[in-house]
Design goal:
single chain, Rossmann fold, UDP-galactose 4-epimerase, domain 1, 7-stranded parallel sheet, 39% helix, 15% strand, globular
């Protein structure tokens, strides 16, 4: 019997599992492949999270069930509902707390780009509506649940515009074509802070029944983040060029990934500001320095930049991965 069950072994799921195991808790990590961190207190199980019966069996006796899974970006409306329903059922049948790894998609575009825990869920896009439905279904089910919402991740293994666009450009000594405004202020959430927030909220009864924002450092632009990364890692300063907004929108007529990215492009063509003051005040959590996150990226990426790189062509829509 495991005290905690973590569904998903990506950067967040792995960080949650390690954090719990290092505190002496027993953890069961559930993925389709049976992957997960290597630790004596971590049991790795291969199972399909859409199988509600199997997931309920695997959650038996657990105090907390963590949803740290992610779905193919172009198939959220098809893939998320059965997984979310299975997680809710597993939590309900085992009287476990369901701790959900959330994001900011449910808010949709906001005036000035600022979002607090009290900002209404007003998204009208496909992915935003999926996240709203997941949260509302969890609340309506009567289970004990909580959601931690973070912005675009930075840190080892994090999949974001930073890792997908900037790191490859730095490694090749080429220009980075950014699908957004490189000077727009943007909040970045450290993967480790997401894990710590999830674990903290799952243990706190006063946190249940609502969503909280992950403590994150003040917003900085992609240009500022890239410059700091170069300074910390000794990498050459990357050249940034703004990809015209119409490129992804036009490509989206034929390329599914481009269509999904275009739907969410407001996050990078204007300010995108997460306010986490309420969470920080309520639970005494503080954000980790972005320097720590960037050094993790540098250590895991180990770029080998070319001395004489030439500007690369703008990325094809399929080459740019989603923020999460």
């Amino acid at each position: 019997m495991s005290s905690h069950v973590v569904v998903g072994a990506g950067p967040v799921g792995s960080a949650v599992a390690r954090l719990l195991a290092e505190a002496g808790e027993t953890v069961r990590v559930v993925t389709r492949s049976g992957s997960g961190p290597d630790h004596p207190l971590i049991e790795r199980i291969a199972a399909d999270a859409r199988d509600a019966r199997r997931l309920s069996e695997l959650t038996r006796g657990a105090a907390v069930l963590y949803n740290c899974a992610n779905m193919a970006y172009t198939k959220w409306p098809e893939l998320w509902p059965p997984v979310s329903a299975a997680l809710i059922r597993a939590a309900k049948e085992n009287d476990a707390v369901l701790a959900i790894t959330g994001n900011l998609y449910g808010y949709g575009p906001q005036p000035g780009g600022r979002m607090t825990e009290r900002t209404p869920l007003a998204a009208t896009g496909r992915k935003g509506r999926v996240r709203i439905a997941m949260w509302e279904d969890a609340l309506a089910s009567g289970i004990r649940t909580v959601e931690a919402r973070g912005s675009d991740y930075v840190g080892a293994g994090a999949d974001s515009i930073f890792s997908a666009v900037l790191i490859p450009a730095i490694a090749k000594g080429r220009t980075a074509w950014l699908p957004g405004d490189p000077d727009a202020p943007h909040t970045w959430t450290y993967v480790g802070d997401m894990a710590r927030t999830l674990v903290t909220l799952a243990r706190e009864e006063r946190a249940w029944g609502r969503a909280w924002h992950v403590p994150s450092q003040p917003a900085v632009s992609v240009r500022e983040l890239a410059a700091r990364y170069a300074e910390l890692t000794g990498s050459p300063a990357v050249r940034l060029r703004r990809l015209p907004r119409w490129v992804m929108r036009t490509a989206g007529l034929a390329v599914p990934m481009a269509r999904e990215l275009a739907e969410m492009d407001y996050q990078f063509y204007g300010p995108f500001l997460l306010d986490s003051q309420e969470t920080e005040s309520a639970f005494g959590l503080t954000p980790t320095s972005l320097d720590v996150a960037l050094l993790e990226v540098g250590q895991s990426s180990r770029p080998t930049p070319s001395r004489r790189g030439s500007p690369a062509a703008p990325p094809t829509p399929t080459a740019v991965t989603p923020p999460k």
